Amino acid sequence: MPDLLIELFSEEIPARMQRRAAEDLKKLVTNGLVEAGLTYAAAGAFSTPRRLTLTLEGMLAESPAVTEERKGPKADAPEKAIEGFLRGAGLTRDQLEERDTPKGKILFAQIHKPGRPAAEIVAEVLEQTIRTFPWPKSMRWGAGALKWVRPLHAILCLISSEEGADIVPLDIDGITSGNTTFGHRFLAPEAITVTGFEDYAAKLKRAFVVLNPEERAETILNDATNMAFAAGLEVVEDAGLLAEVAGLVEWPVALMGTIADDFLELPPEVLQTSMREHQKFFSVRNPKSGRIEKFITVANRTTADDGATILAGNEKVLSARLADAKFFWENDLRTATSAEGMATWVANLANVTFHNKLGTQAELIERMAILARELAPMVEADADEAEQAAKLAKADLSSEMVYEFPELQGLMGSYYAKSAGHSDAVAAAAKEHYAPLGPSDDVPTAPVSVAVALAEKIDKLTGFWAIDEKPTGSKDPFALRRAALGVIRILVENGIQVAILTPFWRSLSQYPESMLESALEDQADRDEAIADYLGMDVNDVFDRRIKKEDAAETLTVRASLADQKLSELLDAGPRALIGTNLLTFLHDRLKTYLKDQGIRHDIIDACIAMDGNDDLTLLVKRARALSETLATDDGENLIQGFKRANNILTQAEEADGVEYSYGADVKYAETDEERALFKALDEAEAKITPAMEQQDFTTAMTAMATLRSPIDAFFDAVQVNSDNQTVRRNRLNLLSRIRGICTSVADLTRIEG
Amino acid sequence: MSHPTSTPRSFQAIILALQTYWAEQGCAVLQPYDMEVGAGTFHPATTLRSLGTQPWAAAYVQPSRRPTDGRYGENPNRLQHYYQYQVLIKPSPPNLQDLYLGSLQAIGIDMELHDIRFVEDDWESPTLGAWGLGWEVWCDGMEVSQFTYFQQVGGHDCVPVSGELTYGLERLAMYVLGVDHVMDMPFNDPDAPIPLTYGDIFKQTEEEYARWNFDTANTDVLLRQFEEAESHCKAILDQPHEDPKTGKRIVMAHPAYDQCIKASHMFNLLDARGVISVTERQAYIGRVRALAKMCADAFVQTRAGGFTEDAA
Questions:
Q1: In a shared domain, residues A313 and A457
Q2: Chain A residues in contact with B113 (beta carbon < 8 A)
């Protein structure tokens, strides 16, 4: 069976787009071919800076013939309708078949589609692919209208088999397909004629082009590692840089160069960042001292002088770059250690806008400092130290080094704080307060860093909530989801128990009341915020609000907990409501976080429904214990026992229109089973109460699980609905006691199944 | 095509080599625009001529000013006044990359010994409402040129597309000549009877302008001039297309664009004086961009911009 080779040869494709583009080429072409009936055995996609290549093995020589049945109009349909159908099917009336169906006689057409030669299909699919290619950014060039990532110069498209290789004829806006490509831009620029993939790859290699990006990356890594090893050094690993550099060269040649002595005292991160960002150099480290002493650059060619000129040039450029970095470093150190110190930088931040509605960076720092001080006792940090750390944490944004290398923010602040004589904890907070940046990034653990990191994130969240700039759908321009996950992870992973609404409210109180009011100006938004928080339908909240406003309905009956909450929220001011809304957002993030750890959403909902749900660490403890218990027999017993008791109780409560929550008394018990249940409850409670105090939810639930058999025995022997009302009420109150105990860890009514 | 094989020995020799080379390639070798601009792109030979359908090929040196880059002549490669070499060809020819590489050879860069790379760099000028895709060209890890296919200028799609090459002349020349500090670079031939370095010519002016740009320029005057240029630009474009005196259709795109350039430079000076806050910055850039767009709109109403009476 024939093979297919496609190469799209262009001017230099951005490194970051190459791999994705090769995959897209494969996907689009193969999808198109398969859709047209042209299957294949294997496919491979490759990219270099100047080409995207696709090879298919074992492709059909032509698509199989197919017969397709098409249903037409009724046999007695108007002539026009039948004519139309015939035109569409390309048949005549006598070729149609009449078939009896429940709807009457209907016309059917058998349409025979003959197979088509592969070349025809390939040409169509490739043209379509090129014209609709999903480049992240594409452009026009010259006088043409075709779009590609950079000017497209040549299309190689070849179907080869044992009989030989045929060009698939194709002309896209004047670019005609052929069987030629070109070698390395400088080392072998001549045209190369090829007969198939193997021939192509081999000839390219002779023409100084390594087609496979993996192979180029491997060569670079091996050569770099060996070169460093020979000098008693090691390459600092950087997978991202390796992939990028492999996309910048067709013929990689690694060269190791020297960093002038003047620069070796710069912080290693500065050296590394400067070399990576500006020059795409790998850093080479002395394993003994940890210092970065050399660099490796990857050229795109060999030269007669073995790269001496290239290396000398690169060293020179690096020296100029590092001279800048050193200049910044020394200036910054001078500022940091001056009499005024880093405060000079903080003062400058009064001119830098954080967000036009949320003020300057200096104002942000001021808010963070107040909040960090407030948070300090909750996270066992020293309040003065936390406040000072918050004040300095962002000072480096004014430093020259961070202006040049924004990615070094925090880290530079840490160096400068240390040089200015601040405590290690304060210096560490500068570096760590941005963390965690991603789901796998470490969270800060040092108390002062924790206080500042929380303050930074809480201020960000409350601020954007206060100006009603919440994330929507896929849009989250201020990375608020990341901030929320950061708060969750810092608290949960450090086991810090804080009622997070308190700092939220404290943080929100730093914004003018008028700003908060306008954030939730619309009554519908307020209702929605309440509905989200309570997990209610927004219409129910609306109804309840209207009733409440009418004041016709006064709360005479004892309201349920949810009802009380709803009532409170309907009266709540904007600060409380925004805080609650933010808590809902955190709960949503928490669900994602826990789902990734295999905890079901109904388990999390059951725990969120409990009081004190703004202590996220406690919430997670509940959820983990419940999740673990539910996986055991105890869990099954707990749920079944609870459900049985709760179902009967709920039915009775609905019928009677009251809530049974008064204490049951054993003196009204009539049967042994009833008395046994009283005893079991007393015994269980004796274990549950201390366990709950210890937040040992697993032990508590194990004790609850022991109730199942006395509950079952009770129901088997006892009819709850006794004619004696006193006895009946007592039994229902007994069930209520079971419900109370069983829902002390989580609201089990929310557990599915 | 023949290229000088001898390596140039001075800054001007490199400029002359580029001039000769691009003249040989058929470009009209223009002279610098006679106004203060931030980059060669601002020359109407690029900004305006990249619009419309008329073919175009021009090359020129453009003295450029970036007040914030002044370092009193002390930084080895930062200057508030420097030279760019600019080439603009419309439509971009298919062999533009090869033509460009030929120009490097013409100034003495040996293609057999150096590592030339085209590294992604998309160009955008918020003040001109312009963008394009292309690369920065690296020679042994140093950026020596910007290479851009213009997609949009002044808010107009570029049809056909112009290819633009911009060389930072000082940096490129320092590299070719092996000089470490710009002020040490020979400007004319080092063996000339009166050899002059770049520093002999520009060290003093860098000091003078740095002091003026950063500390002395009268911001009230600059601000007023910005406003004046802005309203002047609009007033020029508000004139009817038909000149009442000659009765001819004369759309004054270029005089209006001069005012746009002036406003842009005033903004740069104000920026260097540190009187523009971060939020204001965006607003100023937006105002200059609005002018650039109006000028582009006007230019496409001129003959050079592709306007014909038939089409009207």
A1: no
A2: 303-305, 309-310
Query: CB-CB: which of B115, B134, B160 is closest to A301?
Result: B115
Q: Are B141 and A186 a contacting pair at CB < 8 A?
A: no
Contacts of B111 in chain A (CB under 8 A): 186
pLDDT the model gives residue B277: 72
Tell whether A233 is covered by a domain. Answer: yes
Q: Which residues of B touch A279 (CB under 8 A)?
A: 141
d(C-alpha A566, C-alpha A753), whole Å: 28
CA A583/CA A577 separation, integer angstroms: 10
pLDDT band at B278 (very low <50, low <70, confident <90, very high): low
Nearest by Cα to B158 from B243, B225, B91: B91
Distance CA A659, CA A729 (A): 11
- Does residue A314 sit in the same domain as residue A403? no
Q: Quick: pLDDT tens for A177-196.
A: 999 999 999 999 999 999 99
User: Are residues A51 and A134 located together in one domain of the fold?
Assistant: yes
Three-state secondary structure readout of A652-675:
HHHHHCCCCCCCCCHHHCCCHHHH
- Flag whether residue B111 sits within 8 Å of chain A, measured between CB atoms: yes
8 Å CB contact between A484 and A589: yes
Is the Cβ–Cβ distance between A256 and A285 less than 8 Å? no
Angle between helices A383-393 and A447-466 (to 10 degrees): 60
Range(s) of the domain holding residue A94: 66-113
The residues pairing with B118 across neighbouring beta strands, listed in sequence order, are B137
- How many CB atoms sit inside 10 A of residue B312's CB? 8
**A351/B159 CB distance under 8 A:** no
Full 3-state SS string of A278-343: HHCCEEEECCCCCCEEEEEEEECCCCCCCCHHHHHHHHHHHHHHHHHHHHHHHHHHHHHCCCCCCH
* A304/A306 Cα distance (integer angstroms): 6
Task: From B6, B32, B67, B64, select the one nearest B274 (Cα to Cα).
Answer: B67
